[in-house]
């Protein structure tokens, strides 16, 4: 779901006296900051019911912004905006995405100006991940991986598919695999999440020696929202997911409606076509 689909709650011109800045006197004396925020939420249920519990209390959010910025000190307003966005997304489960702008009217640059500001957009991302193992206690490796992913900061496990035994893919002679899939929501960027998954693989003793070869643990990002990304280190959607039964079967169990952003087909459709 993109931010254009969500409704918006806007907070404009919230003044906060806080201690952020590169210079020591800024940290010691403090100065005025002005915060503007747009919260992307689904207000439909609140609008129909008139129930505050089904909406986001903008008064509470204003107090959260003030308390956070006064309780912490950062050199850069970029860092203040980043950490504030994260804090508000975690503290307000109904908020799916957020725009934060922090203005610094008293920026000490020695020239007359109205204000300087940093504005960022952050939000939760829906991600599908494939899991596989064919060395040692594969079930334990997958169980440990699911737990480790769930323990990552700013990450929540949504669903985990059943484990299935599958034949090796890629022509390398080796033992059968135990495969699964999971869906998560996270604040990590694709590159940040990939680094975290590689760390979990490394903890499981993963060695990248033979392409498509045996491994203690294999974690692949299949889908990340509706993102299409192709870099030397990461391709999203996973380049061959539509050709792999051992990927589509478990994913179809927990999220058959997810749609491939390039081919336009759902996981259920791709699995059906692969099996025909």
TrEMBL record:
Gene3D superfamilies xref list: 3.30.1130.10, 7,8-Dihydro-6-hydroxymethylpterin-pyrophosphokinase HPPK
Gene Ontology biological process terms from the UniProt entry: folic acid biosynthetic process; tetrahydrofolate biosynthetic process
Pathway: Cofactor biosynthesis; tetrahydrofolate biosynthesis; 2-amino-4-hydroxy-6-hydroxymethyl-7,8-dihydropteridine diphosphate from 7,8-dihydroneopterin triphosphate: step 4/4; Cofactor biosynthesis; tetrahydrofolate biosynthesis; 2-amino-4-hydroxy-6-hydroxymethyl-7,8-dihydropteridine diphosphate from 7,8-dihydroneopterin triphosphate: step 3/4
SUPFAM superfamilies, per database record: 6-hydroxymethyl-7,8-dihydropterin pyrophosphokinase, HPPK, Tetrahydrobiopterin biosynthesis enzymes-like
Reaction catalyzed: 6-hydroxymethyl-7,8-dihydropterin + ATP = (7,8-dihydropterin-6-yl)methyl diphosphate + AMP + H(+); 7,8-dihydroneopterin = 6-hydroxymethyl-7,8-dihydropterin + glycolaldehyde
InterPro entries tied to this protein: Dihydroneopterin_aldolase, FolB_dom, GTP-CH-I_C/QueF, Hppk, Hppk_sf
Domain 7,8-dihydro-6-hydroxymethylpterin-pyrophosphokinase, chain residue ranges per copy: 211-222
Keyword rRNA-binding listed: no
Segments crossing the lipid bilayer: none
UniProt-recorded Gene Ontology molecular function terms: 2-amino-4-hydroxy-6-hydroxymethyldihydropteridine diphosphokinase activity; ATP binding; dihydroneopterin aldolase activity; kinase activity
Family note: Belongs to the DHNA family.
Name used for this protein in its record: Bifunctional folate synthesis protein
